[in-house]
Design brief:
The complex is a heterodimer of chains A (about 300) and B (about 220).
Chain A: E1 5-10, E2 13-18, E3 24-29, H1 35-46, H2 51-60, E4 83-86, E5 89-94, E6 97-101, E7 112-113, E8 128-130, H3 136-146, H4 150-162, E9 167-172, E10 177-181, E11 188-189, H5 195-209, E12 214-217, H6 226-242, E13 246-250, H7 254-264, E14 273-280, E15 286-292, H8 293-301
Parallel strand pairs in A: 3-13, 3-14, 8-12, 12-13
Antiparallel strand pairs in A: 1-2, 1-4, 4-5, 5-6, 6-7, 9-10, 10-11, 14-15
Helix pairs in contact in A: 3-5, 4-5, 5-6, 6-7
Chain B: E1 2-7, H1 14-21, H2 33-40, E2 41-43, H3 47-58, E3 63-71, H4 77-92, E4 106-109, E5 115-121, H5 130-135, H6 143-157, H7 168-178, H8 187-192, H9 201-213
Parallel strand pairs in B: 1-2, 1-3, 3-5
Antiparallel strand pairs in B: 4-5
Classes of the chains: A alpha/beta (about 300), B alpha/beta (about 220).
Chain lengths: ~300, ~220
């Protein structure tokens, strides 16, 4: 588990200190407050500054238009800064090149030179990451890892308990996901059940693949009706404990925050929950306001707006 | 820019009726009555929760003007002010100048340019609470008010009353309201109906405090 995070000069963060992190971390904040950037920082940290992961962070921001090395410049907070820190990972600029330095590469003067040609694939990451446009191909990869194992049953449980009670079996292909429902003779394409089902399938598959690791979910609410959210949080807390997963999820939705509140306010989970609001304080500095279980409970009782 | 008025109880919303009746413009951004009640006014529920609510507002960078209305109760106006100042100082890590309470309440600016106003009910001096402020808006020679006072003390002396002595002013104000032309109007509505005299120096001070704490429409 990552128990704190220090970020310096990385994208929109000049400097951000998050002194504590818990098992399930919900991150909110206005547009451009750095929610996705925080997830990117965790990806880079967890991969020990892996070149392909850094390339993927850039390309997922649609900024890796070509393979010019200069795109790495976009990782830096301001033009004048030459060095990024994400805990003990350092990315810096020297001459025309960019380098990553970690604890393991400290004997090298500059660290490892970043190469824009390193191609990312999901098997490189040792955390699981769901973005706004995670493809069926990724779902298929996650499925292949757990099909015919006991975790397949857990995926069914998550789907049945949160959104599709009549689900019997799944088949996750590379281009289509089909399901067997009670009382249907033929397989049903998942697409016909609505966007929410696919989103929850992705979350369920990701949980099942993230044992002893980290799960990042960008915009948890995507496609989900609020009635599914409380059940989904219950599943996330339950399996995060069961499989020792640390979860980072971002949201814009008041419903996600409210249901997170309800589920966290339970003796089983209250010590596992933390809500982080990213903001720029009145001095213009990045700031993370931390709500642990107790503070969440207090603000819920007083009906305070903490979005 | 957001503004917040933090009060102990929801009955303090009656103060808005007083200000409106005095012809004040609503706080900027909160002319809509629903928005005023739900966003501008934050009801803490009790004195012990004032700090929690205040802390949340201080953590919200958009909130640039904060007014706090607390009751002096038996603790006294100076002590109430001191504990609020102490809390703000610790929370914001700011060096605050020596802040003294006058009959006009206090308004000051934090180093981050936020405005903080504090008013201790009823008048920044005496012990008491909201109903002492409201009671002071009834002319002393008002016959119904004199009769109310006589009857409530009589019933209290005969031990017919359930409330503790500290609550007697509440009982007086609500009894007085029960005997008006429309009996039992809520305090705010009674203010709008003209049952109270808003042309007293105390109400004037309060309106001035409100004007210097907030930006009005």
């Amino acid at each position: 588990m990552i128990d704190h995070l220090h970020i310096k000069n990385f994208m929109c963060f000049k400097e951000l200190e998050i002194p504590t992190l818990k098992r399930v971390n919900l991150i909110a904040g206005k547009n451009n407050s750095g929610k996705t950037t925080l997830l990117d920082a965790v990806r880079i940290l967890k991969s020990y500054g892996d070149n392909a992961v850094i390339n993927d962070v850039l390309s997922s921001r649609k900024s890796f238009i070509d393979t010019r090395k200069d795109s790495y410049r976009l990782l830096f907070h301001r033009k004048s800064t030459h060095s990024i820190e994400i805990d003990d990972i350092e990315i810096h600029e020297s001459g025309d090149n960019y380098y990553v330095k970690t604890l393991f590469t400290h004997e090298l003067v500059n660290g490892d030179k970043l190469n824009p040609d390193k191609v990312y694939s999901i098997s490189i990451d040792d955390l699981i990451h769901i973005s706004l446009n995670t493809s069926y191909e990724v779902a298929n990869h996650l499925w292949e890892n757990i099909v015919l194992t006991p975790k397949e049953d857990d995926v069914y449980e998550i789907l049945r308990d949160s959104i599709q009670p009549d689900l019997i079996r799944l088949d996750v292909g590379r281009e289509i996901v089909r399901v067997r429902l009670e009382d249907t003779e033929k397989p049903v394409p998942l697409g016909t059940l609505g966007d929410g089902v696919y989103r929850i399938l992705l979350i369920a598959l990701s949980l099942a693949n993230a044992q002893n690791s980290i799960l990042l979910i960008d915009e948890l609410e995507l496609g989900l009706h609020y009635s599914a959210l409380e059940k989904l949080w219950n599943m996330i807390f339950k399996y995060a404990q069961k499989w020792d997963i640390q979860v980072f999820a971002t949201t814009h939705s008041q419903d996600v925050l409210r249901t997170f509140h309800y589920v966290a306010d339970n003796e089983k989970y209250i010590n596992d929950a933390q809500y982080i609001r990213l903001q720029i304080n009145r001095k213009g500095e990045n700031e993370a306001i931390i709500f642990d279980g107790e503070r969440l409970r207090e603000s819920l009782e007083l009906q305070l707006e903490i979005r | 820019m957001q503004q917040r008025l933090i009060v102990e109880g929801s009955d303090a919303i009656a103060l808005a009726n007083i200000l409106m009746k005095k012809g004040l413009r609503p706080p900027k951004g909160y002319a809509n009555p629903t928005k005023f009640k739900e966003k501008f006014v934050k009801v803490a529920g009790s004195i012990s929760q004032i700090q929690t609510v205040l802390g949340e507002q201080l953590d919200t960078p958009d909130v640039a003007h904060i007014g706090i209305i607390v009751d002096a109760d038996k603790k006294g106006a100076t002590a109430r002010l001191a504990s609020l100042i102490d809390f703000i100082q610790k929370k914001t890590d700011a060096d605050l100048p020596d802040i003294r309470l006058t009959s006009k309440g206090v308004v000051f600016q934090l180093p981050d340019e936020r405005y903080i106003g504090i008013w201790v009910m009823p008048d920044n001096e005496n012990e008491g609470y909201l109903e002492h402020f409201i009671g002071a808006m009834i002319p002393e020679d008002d016959k119904t008010w004199l009769f109310t006072q006589a009857k409530v003390s009589e019933l209290t002396a005969q031990k017919f009353c359930q409330f503790t002595e500290a609550k007697i002013q509440k009982a007086l104000v609500y009894t007085y309201l029960a005997w008006q032309k429309t009996p039992g109007l809520p305090m705010g509505t009674a203010v709008s109906a003209g049952y109270f005299n808003i042309k007293t120096p105390l109400v004037g001070n309060f309106a001035d405090w409100f004007k210097s704490t907030f930006v009005l429409e």
